[in-house]
Amino acid sequence: MLDQLLEKQKLTYSKIFFPTKDICNLFSNNYNRLSKAHNLEPASLNGKKLRIFFDGDDQMIGGYVINENPDYQYLISIPEEKKKYIENQYGFDNFIEITGIWMNQKMKKHKRPVNFYTQAFLDCCLSDKEWILGGSYIPKVRDMHMKCLPYILHTGEKLFGDQEKEYWVYYGSLNDVINAIPEFCNHLINT
């Protein structure tokens, strides 16, 4: 019991990194170790920002990629007509995506996911972008994300690992996110 109390007292903090080769390798190694369906190549992180969470012992316990460039990960596998729709309707330069999300078991303890996702929302709000892209092949994750990003852009089949799986790409405005934060955080706390 004392160990659990001491563990709760260890602080979690995060930093934004502009990728160097070493940081990209560390980040992708952690992501790839925890992801069962997608391999993140270190080179794909160039030109993006990385938010990395650390425990009180300075060990990486979670992170995500902040991408404000039009090479959006979530749009790679959608049909060209849907990409054109986004470009014509909103403009590619008006989006931000949080992708490459990973959390180890230490990050998942003690309601730290609330801190994790709240920081992701803040990173989106601090950008000058109006729209946020999201996506998942995991229904539980999709349902959680769509509390804040309520509009489906595309559903389809995609190869994840060695299996074809249904996946969803969705989006929302910064206002959608801000309005949904209380419900979203409540969902995280109670699951």
Summary keywords:
single chain; 191 residues; alpha+beta; Aminopeptidase; seven-stranded mixed sheet
3D architecture notes:
The chain has 191 residues and is of the alpha+beta class. The chain has one domain (7-189): Aminopeptidase, CATH 3.40.630. The protein is 39% helix and 29% strand. It has helices at residues 2-9, 21-34, 80-89, 105-108, 112-126, 139-145, 174-189; strands at 13-17, 49-54, 60-67, 95-103, 131-136, 151-160, 163-173. The protein has a 7-stranded mixed beta sheet with strand order 1-2-3-4-5-7-6. α5 packs antiparallel against α7. The longest helix has 16 residues, at 174-189. The mean pLDDT is 86.
What's the arrangement of secondary structure elements?
Elements: H1 2-9, E1 13-17, H2 21-34, E2 49-54, E3 60-67, H3 80-89, E4 95-103, H4 105-108, H5 112-126, E5 131-136, H6 139-145, E6 151-160, E7 163-173, H7 174-189
Parallel strand pairs: 4-5
Antiparallel strand pairs: 1-2, 2-3, 3-4, 5-7, 6-7
Helix pairs in contact: 5-7
Instruction: Sum up the overall morphology in one term.
Output: globular
Q: Return the string of H and E elements.
A: HEHEEHEHHEHEEH
- Number of domains as seen in the coordinates: 1
Q: Any idea what the radius of gyration is? A: 17 Å
Low-confidence stretches: none
How far do the termini sit from each other? 22 Å
